[in-house]
Amino acid sequence: LQLITEQADIPLSRGAEMKGKCGTNESELELSWLDQAYTLKLSFLKEGHNTSRGPEASWRLSRIQFTYDTSERTYFKDAVSPGKHTASSHRLSALVTPAGRSYECQAQQTISLVSSDHQKSVQLLLSEVRLQPFDIPADFVFSEEHKCPVDQREQLEETLPLILGLILGLVIVITLGIYHIHHKLTASQVQIPRDRSQYKHMG
C-alpha cells in the first residue's frame, strides 16, 4: 500500500488582479493571479437584526469561492489529478463587524473550504487583514476599526499585567499615606501616662 499525499501553500500574489461589485447590502471582491490559475472570490452581506438595545446592523463574510488549477506548476509539482477545481464555503458567517466600521485582525484565522475534488482538503489562512465592504467614507480610507476577538484578547493579555501593577502600586501608596497620617496624628496627641505612680500626689 502506497499513500500519496500532496500539499501546496498558495500565497496571494501582490500582483493579483482585482475586481468587484459594491452594493448597499451585498458586495463582492474577486482576486486572481498567475493568469487566472487561482481565483479567490469573497462575498459580503450587510443585514439588520434586533437586539436588547434596539435594531442594529452588521456585515459579514458570507461566502468564499476559491478556484485553483493543479496543472499549474508553480505550486503543484506532480499533481495526481491535474486540472481546475473549486473549493467553497458552506453557510459561512465570518468576520462579523458592526455596520459603518472596518474589520481588522492581525492574528491568523483558518477557514475550511469544501473542494469539488473530494480527495483534497482546502483551508484559507487569513492574517493581517483589514476590510470594509460597506459604508466607505472615501477612497482608500477606512472607518474606525473593529478588532477581531483574538486581537482583543491578546491586547487585554498585554495590558492586564500593566493595569494590575498600577493598581497594586496605588494600593501601596494609599496604605503608606494612611499609615504616615495616622502616625503623625498619634504623635501630636499628649501622651497620658498609664502608670498611676507617675502622677504627683496632690494634697
From TrEMBL:
The keyword Signal applies. It is found in: Cell projection, Dendrite; Cell projection, Growth cone membrane; Cytoplasmic vesicle, Secretory vesicle, Synaptic vesicle membrane; Early endosome membrane. One of its GO terms (biological process) is establishment of protein localization to organelle. Residues 17-136 form the Lysosome-associated membrane glycoprotein 2-like luminal domain. InterPro entries: Lamp2-like_luminal (IPR048528), Lysosome-assoc_membr_glycop (IPR002000). It comes from the Eukaryota. Belongs to the LAMP family. Plays a role in short-term synaptic plasticity in a subset of GABAergic neurons in the brain. This is Lysosome-associated membrane glycoprotein 5. It comes from Brachypodius melanocephalos. The gene is Lamp5.
